[in-house]
Known about the structure:
The chain contains three helices and seven strands. By secondary structure, it is an alpha+beta fold. The protein is globular.
Amino acid sequence: MPNDAVTTGGEPDNTKTTSTESSSDRPREITLDDKDPCGLIPEADWPKLDIKGRGEQSEEPTLKSPQCYYSDVGNVTLVMTEGIEAWTEGNRNLKVEDTKPIEGFPTITMTNEAGGRACFTAVDVADGQYLLTTATPNPNDPSKPEKCDLAYQLAESAMKTLVAS
């Protein structure tokens, strides 16, 4: 499994205040507690995402959150240790951009300004929680979608499952 852990640039900057207020932009709150990260991408979506089989569940070490790893595709992580504002208001080493909302939920994309193999999409689902997808497609396979498109597609697929639950 490649080491594409989320890098936060060291310890959080505790001198900044972050909002823990409910996001008025969310259509509703979807908590991630007791959800299975490997159960969020329906098998019907596997072919279009180039997923070959069930993912491998583990804990994302930096965010201490459950994740599911799909070989040559990426990860789906259920972040329950911080809110999405850690990216939008925090001091992280990735470039953050607003992205088209998914299922009406605020969504951002994060990339490494120096390039890199991974792209991240985060969806604000609840206070102190967000869905994070990481795309790490094989860069030598031209048939794979662009990494940020793939991260967004993973998040779309997972969010359809979350919204329906």
